[in-house]
Amino acid sequence: MIRNGASKSLESNPSDDICPVCKSNRYLTPSLQFLINPECYHKMCSTCVDRIFTSGPASCPVRYCGKTLRKKGFHKAFFGDLKVERECDIRKRVGAVYNKRQDEFETLLDWNNYLENVEGLVFDLVEGGKEDKMRAEEKLRAYKERNLGEIEANKRAGLEEIEMEKRRERAEKEAARQRRLAAVREAEEEKMDVEKSRREVLEKLASGEGDAREITEMAQKVVLKKSGARRIASEAILQSNGSAKDPNLTIRGLKKREAPVAEKPYEPFGGVDLAPSRYVLQEDYDSEWLANAKKDQRHAAGGFSLHEYYARTMFEAFSGLGVFIEDEMGSKALPAVPSSIGTEAAAEASTGKIKVEHKMELDDVF
């Protein structure tokens, strides 16, 4: 069972169906329509709006409000929650002033900072206190007065983009319609060609001119040739229509579209070519050591392959070619030997006295 609190929360608020001015009830008047004004967002019925604000601006009749309202400012609420409706209106008002675009900024960080500043201003207007709202309104007014020219220019650019997008949509719809008409026309022409070819085949068969099989095959070839030529002509017409589009439908400043680079397969050796360059590996070699292995293929069951044996043997045979130690070591500096070691060895060699432990180290290979 649902508790009383939960059931009450599911029910609609009765005050939402009652006009705060004339106390009209939607239950008694189903056609009752409520309107709001962005100045204060107090809801009242359309009858009270016509009665109070038709003669001119007047103060809001809701108690403790007193804001001056005009009839043209009233409209029907789009959202059921007036807080959401108010936030949307504030965002529209702020967006009409802070209407810069990303291409006007040098870096992405500057663009993100601009968006963060706008969001902070919107938050102060929606959720801020009285002082925060006054400070945000003053900031919005000062920015509008200081950048009025840029705001108007961006507004015109936005309207031009919207108009351009509408024209592009109309052009695409017209092109799609032309393609559909061309497809229908092509199908009708192909159907007429098939019917005409069928009559000609029947006439030739009735008159006995030539072989029936050759006549039928020739008629099919003619129909296919005509349909192919018709399809090529229609594609050429569509391409010419597409290339002759209005240049004003394109947006300036956009990057050129580039085809994505095909992803290459994974290569574990990182591009290193392991193919032998000093020899050509053959499929078979004559060797008396492998005569029995070639005859008896039971070794292949364990995964052994003669071709792998050939590849490894040839690689080991030619692995030393092209390696020159002198060239490799010539570019490298030899490690410096401490002078004390050389002096001590020279002194021992001149006197002929070598320590026993040194001799033992030289003689004892283990």
UniProtKB/TrEMBL annotation:
One of its GO terms (biological process) is regulation of transcription by RNA polymerase II. It is found in: Nucleus. The keyword Nucleus applies. Residues 126-205 form a coiled coil. Keywords: Coiled coil, Metal-binding, Nucleus, Zinc, Zinc-finger. SUPFAM superfamilies: RING/U-box. InterPro entries: MAT1/Tfb3, MAT1_centre, Znf_RING, Znf_RING/FYVE/PHD, Znf_RING_CS. Residues 19-62 form the RING-type domain. It comes from the Eukaryota. One of its GO terms (molecular function) is cyclin-dependent protein serine/threonine kinase activator activity. One of its GO terms (cellular component) is transcription factor TFIIK complex. PANTHER family: CDK-ACTIVATING KINASE ASSEMBLY FACTOR MAT1. This is RNA polymerase II transcription factor B subunit 3.
